[in-house]
Amino acid sequence: MTITVIIDKEKHALEIHENMNIKEVLDKMDISSQTVVVKRNNEVVIEEEILEDGDIIEVIRVIYGG
Amino acid sequence: MNICTKCGATPVIISRKASGQMLCKECFIQSITDKVMKGIRRNKLIEKGDKVAVALSGGKDSVIVLDILNSLYKRNVIDLIAIIIDEGIEGYREHGIQIAVKNAQRMGIKHRVASIKDYFGKTLDEIMADDRREHGACTYCGVFRRWIINKIAREEGATKIATGHNLDDETQAILMNYLEGNIDNLTRIGAKSEPKSDKFTVKIKPLREIPEKEVGLYAVASELDVHFDECPYSQESFRGEVGRFIKELSVNHPTIMYSTLKGFDKIKPALKKEFAEKKVGIGTCIKCGEPASHEMCRACLFSKKIHQKE
Ligand SMILES: [Zn+2]
Ligand SMILES: [Zn+2]
């Protein structure tokens, strides 16, 4: 399935497996979940949240040097 | 679906691994505010009637300090002013300053913008462009910024200066100074400074017990307008390495930063007793009149060097 990831003001389409959660998607993108806040379809979500096809994920970097 | 462990609402925006707590947006924001206020009382950071100067950068940490202290300001417990420093970093600082000013205006808090160039004749960019310079950007920036903030705080009659240091910053400083054997610096880490001179205003760190990630979450969740960009001068440093190390440890040991801080606060009185440099009478800078332990203060020494001709 495909989700849309918005990060650093850029949009990417990302192919992911079924039942992947936010943390796993961040790992896949090599982003530490310790340094970002993630919104799904405009709402802040926790990293255990499972993604669904067509979700729009916004990754907000809140910590640098981390 | 996960529900808020405090009020039962959905959705939750944080899962605190250390405590098993899951919180909805409202309960999370309330929990941070409560924790900050509790820390302020426990450490006696602020008393009724204080005038607090917030060193406001427009970044998440200082904006949240202003946001939380604003509740005391609105209730007439304290007076507030924001001090905004323009370091002179092109393409980066303008946006942060704009956001800082907007936040102060939105809360109806008086603010002053002061630039390093106005006080010391050069922007940080201009200082960094000179190959003869002896220090990194963060050293010049820190020394000049502290000098200006201290001066303005005194002019404004502020009784406290509040900074945005969070739990990550504080544990980083503890670990870094410990690892480097810098014991004298260790003795000065704390929620509240103990100035060597009456001309230095007491500095307080209201966010000292809040993890940086939660500060970021607070900013996003409460839709505060903050500047999340990275300073172009932040470079690889030992501090950064130590910071990454603790953050990585925190993934599997979510209480590690708290325990580092708590343990440090416990041994600090003993450290101070044994190792704090004896208070040598602090003098006055011959150039600017600010407190100095040598003939000239560090800001004036730096200022002299950056203007030296070949
Ligand atoms: Zn709740
Ligand atoms: Zn001086």
Quick summary of this structure?
The complex is a heterodimer of chains A (66) and B (310). Chain A has 66 residues and is mainly beta. Chain A is built from 1 helix and 5 strands, in the order ββαβββ.
Q: Could you please say which CATH topology of chain B applies here? A: Rossmann fold
Strand order in space, largest sheet of chain B: 5-4-3-6-7
**CATH superfamily (homologous) name of chain B:** HUPs
The tally of helices of chain B reads 12
Look at the helices and sheets of chain A and give the structural class: mainly beta
CATH class of chain A: Alpha Beta
| Shape by Cα distribution of chain B | globular
Task: Describe this protein with a few key phrases.
heterodimer; A: 66 residues; mainly beta; Ubiquitin-like (UB roll); five-stranded mixed β-sheet; 1 helix; 11% helix; 38% strand; globular; B: 310 residues; alpha/beta; Rossmann fold; five-stranded parallel β-sheet; two-stranded antiparallel ribbon; binds zinc ion
Write up this protein.
The complex is a heterodimer of chains A (66) and B (310). With 66 residues, chain A is mostly beta strands. Helices cover 11% and strands 38% of the residues of chain A. In chain A, a hairpin with a 2-residue loop joins strand 3 (36-40) and strand 4 (43-44). The mean pLDDT of chain A is 92. The longest helix of chain B has 20 residues, at 256-275. Chain B is globular. Chains A and B meet through strand 3 and strand 4 of A and strand 1, helix 9 and helix 10 of B. The structure holds zinc ion (2 copies). One zinc ion is lined by residues 4, 6-7, 9, 23-24, 26-27 of chain B.
